[in-house]
TrEMBL record:
Pfam families: DUF5753, HTH_3, HTH_31. This is Helix-turn-helix domain-containing protein. One of its GO terms (molecular function) is DNA binding. It comes from Nonomuraea phyllanthi. SMART domains: HTH_XRE.
Amino acid sequence: MAGDSTARVPYAGEITGGRRCAVANFAERLDLALTKRGFTGAQVASALTEAGIPITRAYVSQLRTGKQTNPTLQVLRALASCLQVSVGWLVGDDYLESGAVEDLQLRAAGVGLAASGLSEGSLSVLRGVVELARRAEGLPDEPEPAGADIPEAAAPLSGPQRRALGKRLHGLRLAAELSVEQVETAIGRGAAAIPAIEEGRIAPAPITVERLLTLYGIAAPPVRDYVLALARGERAAAWYDAQSVPVWLATSYALEQRATVIRTYQPQFVPPLLQTEEYARAAITAAGPATLGQQTVDEALALVLARQEAVAGDGAGDGALVVWAVIDESVLARSIVGPHVQLRQVDRLIEHAKRPNVSLHVVPMEDPAYVPRTGPFTLWRFAEAFEPDIACAHGIDSDELVTDTAAVEAYHQAFTKLSVTTTTREETFEVLNFHRERLSRSLGK
């Protein structure tokens, strides 16, 4: 898992008993990628070692032949970067995200085993039941196998991509307090034209970016992935790639845009995604614009509004982002703005709570059943089966991205406990309407 260099990649075959088939899938894809890209095992091992991920030629050979079956996610990501493929393609459908998915795989395998020895007529009935169940859950009639053909190598980066990547690498070099000469000496003179890269005139190879990130002290996998996704041409340059947005914050925004489910606990303010512009300005003023890496309130406010626009939607589609928010009731009672603005914010929350893709809960001020011993935090879940959840602890002047399996699970348990001990949907509306009436009375309405 990201953040844990020892986390190994589980394969479906290791759970269901088809271990040889699953291993062959990964090994064959790795072999195909190496062959098509024209790399030897020694070249790949050297490139990854120079990027700060030491592996040997023998280890690459063992992965290629299926003799080694436990690469870490860090190694997988580095291999994918070097070979210009996605991790998803490299591991195919054999990668499992969590114990829950593993359990489903195991149950499915059990169904198949139980069907052994049935007559053709019984098997036909069983297939019909399975088809009906898949349709009921919105799944295709038959699982579509992932294609094994290697994708084309990434096309050259566009001008905006090169410039955004160059500015980000320039900022990271300055933050590491390294001169151009020091960088070129460290990675080998002639290995990369640093000024041309930073000015956006040329695009460095993804493996070169891996080496630069290691040199600049960028160790957190989500941050590395954020920069590498741009280097590999996997995404277009975005508003959060601006050099004025700190890399830790840009990474959070990039994760937020890719998330399919956002769970957030906010004990002090209304969650930023649900704020009105006036309330957002007041919240930034109270906390300070530096919490968003900005010098002025207006600059920080622009980031909040850009976030809201990026994830906006009516929640009607199947792929709509789901926002699950828990706030403390003190958020509704705390006066960081005038009653007119506070009233409009409560009205906005009522509107959000009516949306099908928003679930809003309130921790009561009186006799709460559970209050976690933590500050605000957010959990992101993604559509890709191979990508684990990531937690984000919102700190005083920056955010901490949490990827350790046990730590993320602890945040999940806390949020689950909050969700089942706070207000129900109907009770949430009761609390919101109570505070709306209170504010209306104070305004003489």
